[in-house]
Design goal:
Strand order of the largest sheet: 3-4-10-7-9-8
Domain MacB-like periplasmic core: 25-247
Number of domains: 2
Shape: elongated
Transmembrane segments: 20-46, 274-300, 321-345, 376-395
InterPro entries: ABC3_permease_C, Lipoprotein-release_system, MacB_PCD
Domain ABC3 transporter permease C-terminal: 279-401
Organism: Spirosoma profusum
């Protein structure tokens, strides 16, 4: 029998009357439990937000994007495109010409981000689930079409049903001085709106158009692109594919994954997650201070018992372990309760979504959550460390008595 564990359990579970010290121990356990539960839930919400953003980006952006290291465009020769297509794991490759432009529709005018894409873009079928009205169509029977974001439709009052009113896109000519009053200072292209899509606000100014139209508008020569978007086959290892694509692209081009393109947002989410976790850790620390006080008072209350133990031959190490185990029992029971409650709340939120976002314009109805075993393990380790810190001094005091 482990005597220190037995005595610690007797002190914790077998009290004949509920004294102030026992109530303080219970309060300490509840404080640790609530703090642990809150930490698990909040960390899971941040994980859910990060995963939600990944799903949003996956709706519009490619798995890999080839960009120039200098400037905003480069020459995508047939040899380069074929070399990239031969990389293991590549499913589709889309040539893209993208830049800001001015759009007119009827009496409305707005600044847009025109994205010219080739026919392979529609084969990716990324926007199929995001279409609000119309259809995915860029070119048919010699007619050029545009797919506009909901923000552009709202700003210009566009109706895909109205095929008689064109969407006019204007772009400044590079070889002429810019003058908004000079109609010859702009390249112009007219498009028929075929559909409207909505993902979220960061994509609300996009207009998709045929690649040749965008090249003509921007004054690009043949094979000029701003990027090459690559869709990988399902199950492809992204890191291995990225390295292979970088070797094929050469030193003048840079291959970036979807996460690389949005690294600032992910970094912001992780910093916020760390700061919130730090704040909740201090709350758990404050709750664990009650363990310090309850153990200190227990040492005073059990002074006679400690003297008897020494008289029976107990060592300082044994007495110290008794009160360390007592503090561990309080913290572990609180932590386990908090972890279980936190996991249950997250699983219930993930399945039923009973806590809503509270905004009508949100793209989701409820807060996203995602449980991560590393967060749960980190929370458990954190509680153990805090318990050791708060229990050591009372246990040491008991050992010196």
């Amino acid at each position: 029998m482990n005597l220190p564990s037995f005595i610690a359990r007797r002190y914790f579970f077998s009290r004949k009357k509920r004294s102030f010290i026992s109530w303080l121990s219970t309060l300490s356990m509840l404080g640790v439990g609530v703090g642990t539960m809150a930490l698990v839930v909040v960390l899971s919400v941040f994980n859910g937000m990060e995963e939600l953003n990944r799903e949003i980006f996956k709706t519009f952006e490619a798995d890999m994007t080839v960009l120039p290291k200098e400037g905003k465009r480069f020459k995508a020769s047939a040899a380069l495109i074929n070399k990239l297509r031969e990389v293991d794991g590549v499913q589709l490759l889309t040539s893209v010409a993208q830049d800001n432009a001015l759009a007119r529709y009827a009496n409305g005018t707005t600044v847009i981000k025109l994205k010219g894409v080739d026919d392979s873009y529609l084969k990716r079928k990324q926007l199929d689930s995001s279409m609000l009205e119309g259809r995915m169509l860029l070119n048919r029977d010699g007619v050029n079409y545009a797919i506009v974001a909901e923000g552009v439709r709202h700003d210009l009052g566009i109706s895909p049903i109205d095929i008689l009113t064109p969407l006019e896109v204007l772009y400044p000519q590079g070889d002429k001085s810019f003058n908004v009053l000079n109609p010859d200072a702009f390249n112009r292209e007219s498009l028929t709106v075929s559909g409207v899509f909505f993902i979220e606000s960061r994509y609300d100014n996009f207009v998709l158009a045929p690649l040749d139209v965008a090249r003509t508008l921007f004054g690009y020569i043949s094979d000029d692109v701003t990027s090459l978007e690559i869709q990988l086959k399902p199950g492809t290892n992204e890191e291995i594919a990225k390295q292979a694509l970088q070797e094929a692209a050469g030193n003048e081009l840079n291959v970036q994954s979807r996460d690389d393109l949005n690294t600032d947002l992910y970094r912001t989410i992780r910093i916020e997650k760390f700061l919130v976790a730090l704040a909740l850790s201090f709350i758990i620390l404050v709750a664990s201070v009650n363990i310090f006080f309850s153990l200190s008072m227990l040492v005073i209350e059990k002074k006679a018992d400690i003297q008897i133990l020494y008289a029976l031959g107990a060592t300082r190490g044994m007495v110290r372990r008794i009160f360390l185990i007592e503090g561990a029992l309080i913290a572990v029971l609180g932590a386990v309760t908090g972890l279980i409650l936190g996991i249950v709340i997250c699983l219930a939120q993930e399945k039923y979504g009973f806590i809503g976002m509270g905004t009508v314009s949100s793209i989701i109805d409820a807060y996203p959550v995602k449980l991560d075993t590393s967060d749960i393990a980190m929370t458990g380790i954190l509680v153990i460390l805090i318990t050791v810190l708060t229990s050591w001094l009372p246990a040491q005091r008991a050992a010196r008595m």
